[in-house]
Amino acid sequence: MSTTGYRMSTLVRLLHAGVLGAAATFYATGGACAPDRPRLSTNEAYVEETLRATELGISDPLSVLAFVLESLPDRVKVYPTENYYYFRFMHDGTPYAGSIRLPPGDRDEGKIEFGYYKDLSEWSDAMAGDVHLIAGPAQGLEMERLDRFAYRLTFRNKSVVFMLNDLSEVRPPAAALGADETFLGPIFDESGVRFFLLFNAKLKLFHYVLDETVGVADDLSAMAGADRILVGRRTGFAFYRDHLVDRKILIGAYEGNSRINNYFDGPFDQLPENFIQGEELRGAIVASDPGVKGQLDRLGNYLHEEGRYLIHPYMLYHRQSDLLAIHACAARSVGRPAVYYRCFLASPPEESTPKRSPARRSKR
């Protein structure tokens, strides 16, 4: 996502119905996992929110930041592992999307990344009204570290505690690790799906493997004619049931979701930055691509320009049939692991800048 983590989707259209605060409270208190009846969203509420006249200094980012914080409960949960708290709102009939990010290092210096923009759509995927800033004490913002995964943010007399997602005890089952593979860290994607980030030191390649130690919040269905490929009805994520190891490897995300930068473009932009040990990530990246040696920090961020190294091994597919090439490759190569695991690698469409995340312009 481009400006401070802008990853909004039709999944959360209930926020367009004017229930931003209620939804935030629901997820912050863990209600997403509690046994409960579904929440109903109606066209009536959506239309009324669209027609409602609103007053907001939309061109003043500090006024918008104050509005967002005032709309939140006193405590919220930041699920994504790159520490983005995403939000949406409707203003004068226009949907906006944005995020507050608490990046490592900066958050302990009292700084956040904040931004918002007019929401993207299939028919208009050009970002408009893009606003991004790094806010801190100079803007009147106060940040108090309560513990490793809790920070109190205060701005204009409103305080909100941001609870970061503590996955420090999460590990993949031994059966999910292949030979020569290292576990780099757990990922909680903004889609609500969890992954393990793995690196194969012998083959010098990365995999995102589905975390099935918890319930998977999607309906995975096998493709006709290729039952080892499973596609999520909600997310569009495509997984391959590994022939050699008991696991499901992410092999695809729907291209349209990537183009409009929503919650379902895959986990490349939710690296486990709170859980990376020492030099493991940088070492893995340099091993896979020696040309970037000396250009990255330990979390994979470029030292002298914006952006983070792009770890995007999965395909961006237009139709599910695009995935069949992966199945055919895997089926004929299963006896040759060095070839077999390369069947799951695909390059993103931005061939001119293949190693820099296209979603990092102001998230960084």
Task: Kindly describe this structure.
With 364 residues, the chain is α+β, with helices and mostly antiparallel strands. The chain has two domains: 10-164, no CATH class; 174-344, no CATH class. It is 16% helix and 27% strand. The protein has seven helices and 16 strands. The chain has helices spanning 20-28, 43-51, 61-71, 255-259, 280-288, 324-333, 337-340; strands spanning 75-78, 84-91, 94-101, 112-118, 128-135, 142-147, 150-155, 158-164, 181-188, 194-200, 205-210, 220-223, 226-232, 238-241, 248-254, 315-317. The strands form four sheets. Strands 12-13-14-15-16 form a five-stranded mixed sheet. A four-stranded mixed sheet has the order 1-8-7-6. Residues 1-31, 348-354 and 358-364 have low confidence and may be disordered.
Number of strands: 16
Tell me, briefly, the overall form: globular
Q: Describe the largest sheet.
A: 5 strands, mixed
- Outline the low-pLDDT stretches: 1-31, 348-354, 358-364
Distance between the termini: 10 Å
Structural class: alpha+beta
Provide key terms for this protein.
364 residues; alpha+beta; 5-stranded mixed beta sheet; 7 helices; 16% helix; disordered C terminus
Q: What's the layout of helices and strands?
A:
Elements: H1 20-28, H2 43-51, H3 61-71, E1 75-78, E2 84-91, E3 94-101, E4 112-118, E5 128-135, E6 142-147, E7 150-155, E8 158-164, E9 181-188, E10 194-200, E11 205-210, E12 220-223, E13 226-232, E14 238-241, E15 248-254, H4 255-259, H5 280-288, E16 315-317, H6 324-333, H7 337-340
Parallel strand pairs: 1-8, 15-16
Antiparallel strand pairs: 2-3, 3-4, 4-5, 6-7, 7-8, 9-10, 10-11, 12-13, 13-14, 14-15
